[in-house]
């Protein structure tokens, strides 16, 4: 083992609760799953809020567990097939590292999933004037690296270089140079509504840039500065697979994904192809085909696209969706078989690539399976995420988060309440203040803004609702277990 891969930010002598394994990477895995940050994910939305659907649907924790399962399977398969030691030349591929990174990749996701991420980013940039804004991946990295300021060693997880590097899907900061590449790496393109604000996706805030550099140091000269490590690429690919397949299970179980609408779209495109009317059935998937050629010409292939449409139509539309989910053992078996068959096919198609395209990683799905994932994700985006009833709830959740940020900021700035501010919020202000460089304009305001964002991002869905109910006077219960202050 390369010792530099196993180095930690704060030295090897620090022992965390739950450190029982001999392997440093297994130690990392144990630190992640025993942390309160991981436990919180059980109450955070994946696609459908866990508070409204019971045990039927995935939350961020069960999603992370499945990503870890898929990621480890990919890593073990690639290690076995790697006869030329390409993975070693690229910096290493350890299944324990991959599993740990997969378990940690969503630690920073705020309440209400990706909707919460977008809202907090807009508030951070536009309301709180924080140049880095908010990003779920960067927040995950902040959680595992954050340092205490009272002489204690760390309140982060003090993970090894290899695992921290594997968490970095987007190994650049918001204002890094990756966005100026032509083409930019996937995720590095500027924010559509504010091109001067930096990259849309990024892996670390400016406050953690030194930690990111330390994590990436063992890979210098092996992978490009902007490129994922092999282990990060495995985790990222597994995340894509889990999203494409397991989230479809959820929307099928709750009856949201309707066979007729999906069938009409896919079959219309199969009939009309490139001549599909943009305003009618078939037009949306034709737009996807054209978008793939614009953005991912290195992989886009019309024959593979058509074959993927046909396979999804046959196995999803005529298979899984042909019978509404009724909770029976037979229905559960059908969902399990669909998920297992698709996951196995995708995992078995994955290859290790020495010289990938800029918008790819060293780990790739084969051409056929890459297109299949694009079609599955299209079905989710088109027929679930674009639904008006989902938008109704998300608009309410967005207003709740905005109101919560304002209420907490008002509490922080009330001189009469200085002694009654929640201890964690005060600690976060102090931490944020120490991170800011000398001469920062409105230093206290910046620190308070980052602290409020960190505080809100660390809540579950129900904690965010309960806290806002209390702050707005709607809750009549003085002592509650909805949140702890």
Instruction: Just give the CATH class of the largest domain.
Output: Mainly Alpha
- N-to-C CA distance: 43 Å
How many strands?
4
Q: What number is the mean pLDDT?
A: 90
Shape: globular
- Give the percentage of residues in beta strands: under 5%
Number of helices: 20
What number of domains? 3
Largest beta sheet: strand ordering? 1-2
Per the CATH scheme, the topology name of the largest domain is Hypothetical protein af1432
- The ordered H/E elements are HHHHHHHHHEEHHHHHHEEHHHHH
Helix/strand class:
mainly alpha
Identify low-pLDDT runs: 148-153
Radius of gyration: 23 Å
Q: Quick one: CATH superfamily of the largest domain? A: Hypothetical protein af1432
GO molecular function: dGTPase activity
Protein name: DGTPase
Keywords: Hydrolase
GO biological process, one term: dGTP catabolic process
What does the secondary structure layout of this molecule look like, with pairings?
Elements: H1 3-6, H2 24-33, H3 36-40, H4 60-81, H5 86-89, H6 95-104, H7 113-127, H8 136-145, H9 161-167, E1 190-191, E2 194-199, H10 209-216, H11 230-253, H12 259-272, H13 283-295, H14 302-317, H15 329-348, E3 351-352, E4 363-364, H16 367-385, H17 388-412, H18 423-435, H19 443-457, H20 461-471
Antiparallel strand pairs: 1-2, 3-4
Helix pairs in contact: 2-6, 4-6, 4-11, 6-9, 6-11, 7-17, 7-19, 9-10, 9-11, 11-15, 11-16, 12-13, 12-14, 14-16, 17-19, 17-20, 18-19
